[in-house]
Each structure stands twice: as structure tokens, then as C-alpha cells.
């Protein structure tokens, strides 16, 4: 149940709209469901009188005390609150809507119970799913009602009504959410064939432009590269005070662009807030750290592997309840926006939905202390500059690697917000985690299948040995007959990863124990998958098992003596290739 409160000065104008046909003939059977005394004239149901005369009588009754107060009455004396149920809720009766209206005017102190001097009000219903409450803000003693924080009080009362009436219970907000599109914006989007309102499109475009940007010039440049109209607001000194953006082709009735200031798109997209974020400028070329991925990998794969390690460290910050957690959530939002821009086609829609959902989790009233988010912003910048990743090969595997880590990060964010009573932010974090899980299943399908196939080729004693190592690390009992169908197959991909790490010179038992001890695993739905990607990153193994894809160009296997491993040596291409009829055609 969502209340929306506005104030105005024209009682007759608002009533004429409520009892009229609506902007698109959507008003059906307008009538009163409640009033201050239960006897107010109803222009919609009074069949024995002219509706216009009844409307005049109703306006006069509502404005009586306003006229008596004279200049002491507030200029904006009309309090207007629309209350709407969720689309999945049952249809409330007129009596139930009357109860809702009376509880709300009492909650905001317009008409307290058993107060004969309460303000006059009416509740009009012209649709099944909502009502409009109109009240004039002058009491019977001609004083103004005390209505501090009326929106918060109405929200709190709606949460109680939802619970008592068995309606869908919404999450209480804290005033940090972005503004929703207006009805006019939604109707315009429908008329013009847009799938979303310009406000929503612009909010996402601005978020993606700031993801990993080094300075204001790059931020504004990205906005223009995205095809947006950009207008800067300057002080007399020439300094930039703010910015406005508009979608090409989105114009008002005067054929002028419809501009949105950054602060109207979201509280954290104002220029001062963006400037504070840009102070943690990412570095373009940071030297490789020990243990980071090799430089011979593709740019998208390399940056995703590095981002996975950074995201894992941020997850630890959230679990440790540090003072900088709030800022790290902002950086995590930038990382998701960067991935959404450059993700493979198969995962792009889910990642966009994850970034949009997590945007709500990046804002709260908690301020960060001594926060440094340069690592996250550098990861986002690297991903944007590396370009779009492919959905196959090393790029696809690296995408699965970072998504597996981000699922745990968003769940840690949900726990952090829940501990502070941030219901909307916690719900948004869990929603983002579900979208990330869906994207992960798309990205990980091919690499995990290749690992399972690799495990099937391992000698049976080696498979059993790795399985025993896995069960011991996870605290699971060993099977009596070793490798059994339905029990050990879940370990195939993990066993193949341990075998590959052992072949690369690592101790599989020590590596697995380090992966288990790195972070919590309780929130993971698939513990084995989390451990696979941790081990492959810790051991710097390819995201896709060696030999799965095509050999690199310019390399060919050399003949080797029996008992000696084959090696790859670079084979320079001849200046003029000559076909040899005695040799078979090369395999392609």
C-alpha cells in the first residue's frame, strides 16, 4: 500500500478532477467512501440533486473553516493523499477503504480520534485499487494542525494496515530512494512506445557514465558518447555548478528538450556527490600485484579476474562491519554498472537488472568513515576500457568467476543492511543476488561442463584421492565404495580443478583449505562452484581448462620421445606458404 502526498490551494479543482472522467477516461463510478462526519454530500451518488450543485455544497463545507480563518489559513490549505494497493492484492470494499482513510488522517494528525475540532476531509474512490483523501488544513478552533513528518507517519500507518488487512507488506523506506516516474511520464512513455520512462533511462546512463570515470571531463564525455544531451550550469566565475541531461527526441509540448538535473534522477547523482566519488580516482595503469592474472590473457578476462579478487576483499569488509562499508557498496555498484555495459549478450539482461536493483542498496543514511574505494573504481574502469567480453573461452570463464564472487558480495550487503534496519536496501541486495545467480548459470555452463569432462578422463585412483581431499576439507563423510553415481559427480569439476592445480605445481590439499578459509560459504547455494573459482584464481589457472578451446595461433605441438611430455614451441609462419601435396591438409 503506497501513499503519495501533495499539497495545493484549489479544493474545487481537485474535486472536479476526482469526480471527472480522468485524463484517459480511467475514472469509473467516482463516489465517497468516507468523510469527516459521515454525512458529506456526494456528487457521485446523490441521485436526487444536480451533481454540480452537490459539488458546490461539498466544496463550501470543506472550505468553511478556511474562509473563517481568513489570512491565518495556510496558502496551500489542501492536503491530498492518494493511497494505492499492490496489483496482487485483493480488492478492498468501500468500508475497508473508509477504515484506511480514517486511520491515515488520524496518523498524520489531521483528524485525531475523538477530537471534534479535527480538520474536514473526504475520501473519493474512482477505481478498484486506490482512493484519494482530500482535507482542508484548518481545524475547528481555526488553528493549523501540527503535521510534521506527515509522509513518514502515513508510510508507517500503511505498513500496519497491510499487516492487519492481509495485504502485501512493503519494505519501509528511509527517504534515500530515487524518485519514481510521475504518472505523466509513464503515460508519455506508453504513448511514444518506450519500454521505460526517460527518467529511468537517464538514471541508468548517468550511473554507467560515472562508473570508473577518472574526472569530470571524462564523466561528461561519456554522457555525450552515450548520445545524451548535456547542459552544464555555470556560476558567474565560470565554475560548473551542476548539469542537466535529456534524451534525444524527448521534448515537451513546446518542442523543447525535457531536461533532468542529476539530483532529480537520484540523490547520489548530483554533481557535488559525484565529485566526492571522483576524488577516489582510479589509476589507469597500476603495476601487476603478486598473484594477479597473467598479462597474456585477453583484456576482458584479465580485468574480470582482478575484479573477482577485489570483490572478495570487499565482501570481507562488509562481514567485518567496518566503518567504510557504506562507501564500498557505492564502489560495488560501479563495478556492477561496468559489467552490465560490457557483459556478453547471454548475461547482459540479467546483469542490467542486477545493477538496477543494487543501485537502491548503495544509498542509505550511513556515512562512510575513512573510505578508500579506489580499488573498486579501478576495477570498474579496467572493465569498461577492456571492452565487451565474449561469452565463450577464457572471457566466458572469467565472467563466471567474477559473478560467483559478486553473488556473495551482494548477500553480504543484504546482511549488512538488515543489521541496520535498512529493509528496502536489504531486499534490493537480495534481488540483485538472484539476477547475478541467473547470469552466473549462463556464464558458467560451458566452463563447468568442460571441467566435468576433464574429470571423467582422470584415472580412477586420482579421482578418488581428490574426492577424499574435498570431503575432508568440507567435513563430509567418505563414501564406502569411493566414486558413486549421484554423490561424487558433484565433485567432478572441483576434482578436475585440483588435478589441474597439482599439475601446475600446487599442493591441492593446502590450496583447497586456503580456499575454504578465505570467506564464509554458508550463503552459497553451490559451495563447490564457489571453491572452483577461488582455486582457479588463487592458483592462476585458466578460467577454462587447458586444451578445451582451439590452440593459439602460431603454436604447434612438437614430436616427443616416448615417456616425455609434449611441449609447445612457437612456429614462425613462412614468408610464402607453399602447399605440399604429400602432407594432409591441416585440421581446422
Automatic annotation (TrEMBL):
Residues 75-167 form the MobA/VirD2-like nuclease domain. Residues 169-200, 272-308, 542-588 are annotated as: Disordered. Residues 185-200, 294-307, 579-588 have a biased composition (Basic and acidic residues). Coiled coil: none annotated. It comes from the Bacteria. InterPro entries: Endonuclease_MobA/VirD2. Residues 547-578 have a biased composition (Low complexity). This is Mobilization protein. It comes from Kitasatospora phosalacinea. The lineage of its organism: Bacteria, Bacillati, Actinomycetota, Actinomycetes, Kitasatosporales.
Amino acid at each position: 500500500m503506497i501513499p503519495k502526498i501533495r499539497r495545493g490551494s484549489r479544493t474545487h479543482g481537485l474535486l472536479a478532477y476526482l469526480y471527472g472522467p480522468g485524463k484517459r477516461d480511467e475514472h469509473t463510478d467516482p463516489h465517497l467512501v468516507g468523510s469527516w462526519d459521515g454525512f458529506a454530500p456526494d456528487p457521485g451518488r446523490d441521485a436526487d440533486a444536480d451533481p454540480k450543485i452537490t459539488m458546490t455544497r461539498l466544496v463550501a463545507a470543506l472550505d468553511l473553516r478556511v474562509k473563517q480563518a481568513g489570512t491565518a489559513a495556510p496558502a496551500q490549505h489542501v492536503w491530498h493523499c492518494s493511497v494505492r494497493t499492490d496489483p496482487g492484492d485483493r480488492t478492498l470494499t468501500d468500508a475497508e477503504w473508509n477504515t484506511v482513510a480514517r486511520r491515515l488522517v488520524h496518523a498524520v494528525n489531521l483528524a485525531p480520534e475523538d477530537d471534534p475540532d479535527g480538520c474536514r476531509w473526504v475520501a473519493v474512490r474512482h477505481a478498484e485499487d486506490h482512493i484519494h483523501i482530500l482535507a482542508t488544513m484548518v481545524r475547528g478552533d481555526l488553528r493549523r494542525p501540527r503535521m510534521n513528518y506527515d509522509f513518514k507517519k502515513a508510510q508507517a500507518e500503511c505498513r500496519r494496515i497491510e499487516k492487519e488487512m492481509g495485504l502485501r507488506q512493503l519494505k519501509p523506506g528511509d527517504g534515500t530512494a530515487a524518485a519514481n516516474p510521475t504518472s505523466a511520464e509513464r503515460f508519455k512513455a506508453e504513448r511514444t512506445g518506450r519500454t521505460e520512462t526517460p527518467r529511468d533511462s537517464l538514471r541508468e546512463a548517468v550511473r554507467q557514465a560515472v562508473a570508473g570515470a577518472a574526472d569530470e571531463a571524462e564523466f561528461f564525455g561519456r554522457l555525450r558518447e552515450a548520445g545524451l544531451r548535456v547542459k552544464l550550469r555555470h556560476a558567474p566565475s565560470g565554475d560548473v555548478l551542476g548539469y542537466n541531461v535529456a534524451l534525444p527526441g524527448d521534448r515537451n509540448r513546446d518542442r523543447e528538450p525535457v531536461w533532468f538535473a542529476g539530483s532529480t534522477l537520484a540523490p547520489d547523482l548530483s554533481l557535488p556527490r559525484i565529485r566526492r566519488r571522483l576524488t577516489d580516482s582510479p589509476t589507469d595503469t597500476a603495476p601487476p600485484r603478486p598473484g594477479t592474472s597473467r598479462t597474456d590473457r585477453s583484456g576482458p578476462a584479465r580485468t574480470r579476474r582482478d575484479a573477482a579478487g577485489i570483490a572478495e576483499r570487499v565482501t570481507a569488509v562488509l562481514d567485518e562491519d567496518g566503518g567504510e562499508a557504506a562507501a564500498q557498496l557505492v564502489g560495488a555498484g560501479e563495478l556492477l554498472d561496468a559489467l552490465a555495459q560490457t557483459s556478453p549478450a547471454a548475461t547482459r539482461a540479467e546483469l542490467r537488472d542486477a545493477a538496477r536493483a543494487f543501485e537502491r542498496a548503495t544509498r542509505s543514511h550511513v556515512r562512510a568513515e575513512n573510505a578508500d574505494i579506489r580499488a573498486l573504481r579501478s576495477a570498474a574502469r579496467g572493465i569498461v576500457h577492456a571492452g565487451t567480453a565474449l561469452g565463450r573461452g577464457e572471457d566466458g570463464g572469467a565472467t563466471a568467476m567474477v559473478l560467483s564472487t559478486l553473488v556473495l558480495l551482494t548477500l553480504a550487503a543484504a546482511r549488512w543492511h538488515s543489521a541496520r534496519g535498512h529493509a528496502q536496501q536489504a531486499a534490493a541486495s537480495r534481488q540483485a543476488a538472484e539476477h547475478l545467480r541467473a547470469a552466473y548459470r549462463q556464464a558458467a555452463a560451458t566452463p563447468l561442463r568442460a571441467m566435468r569432462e576433464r574429470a571423467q578422463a582422470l584415472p580412477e585412483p586420482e579421482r578418488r584421492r581428490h574426492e577424499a581431499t574435498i570431503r575432508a576439507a568440507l567435513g563430509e563423510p567418505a563414501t564406502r565404495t569411493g566414486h558413486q553415481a549421484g554423490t561424487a559427480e558433484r565433485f567432478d569439476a572441483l576434482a578436475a580443478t585440483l588435478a589441474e592445480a597439482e599439475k601446475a605445481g600446487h599442493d591441492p590439499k593446502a590450496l583447497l583449505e586456503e580456499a575454504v578459509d578465505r570467506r564464509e560459504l554458508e550463503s552459497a547455494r553451490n559451495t563447490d562452484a564457489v571453491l572452483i573459482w577461488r582455486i582457479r584464481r588463487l592458483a592462476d589457472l585458466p578460467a577454462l581448462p587447458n586444451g578445451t578451446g582451439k590452440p593459439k595461433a602460431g603454436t604447434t605441438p612438437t614430436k616427443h620421445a616416448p615417456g616425455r611430455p609434449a611441449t609447445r614451441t612457437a612456429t614462425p609462419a613462412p614468408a610464402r606458404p607453399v602447399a605440399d601435396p604429400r602432407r594432409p591438409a591441416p585440421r581446422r
